[in-house]
Amino acid sequence: MLWLEQKWRSQLPTQSGGSKRTNVSATGAYSSSSNSETPLADEPDVDSPVRPQRSKKSKQKDIKNVREKELMDREKEREEEKEHRAKIMPIKEKELQIQAAMKEKELQTQRYIKEMEIKAKEREMDMQILNADTSTMSEKRRALHEIACEKIIAK
């Protein structure tokens, strides 16, 4: 590349005496040190240390660790969900009990209303019997009417 050649390297900015970070290498890498005499690994004259390749076993171990961590995370999520359900179950049971009690109360109210309606109809029929005109009735009919009126009054 052109910027690595000597002609272009002389035009690259150099480090000033200030404490700010500046480009100090030919590749444009930053230096955190205030000593510009320290050679950098990015410069072509300096040998950079070679990092060893990772072994297959170490990669497999890392993969295994990642999988184990994922499994542990899933297990932790399951445990948290179980705890959440355990907390919610008593609340849901209480809610169901309340709903059942409300339904029973509603059924009792409906039964009471029907009973009152039936009693109201009975009173209406009793009033019709009590207020019936006996002048046009036959003797047998009048005798039955009097028995019915006595039963109504006895209630």
Automatic annotation (TrEMBL):
<feature type="region of interest" description="Disordered">
    <location>
        <begin position="1"/>
        <end position="85"/>
    </location>
</feature>
<feature type="compositionally biased region" description="Polar residues">
    <location>
        <begin position="9"/>
        <end position="30"/>
    </location>
</feature>
<protein>
    <recommendedName>
        <fullName>No apical meristem-associated C-terminal domain-containing protein</fullName>
    </recommendedName>
</protein>
<feature type="coiled-coil region">
    <location>
        <begin position="91"/>
        <end position="133"/>
    </location>
</feature>
<feature type="compositionally biased region" description="Basic and acidic residues">
    <location>
        <begin position="60"/>
        <end position="85"/>
    </location>
</feature>
<keyword id="KW-0175">Coiled coil</keyword>
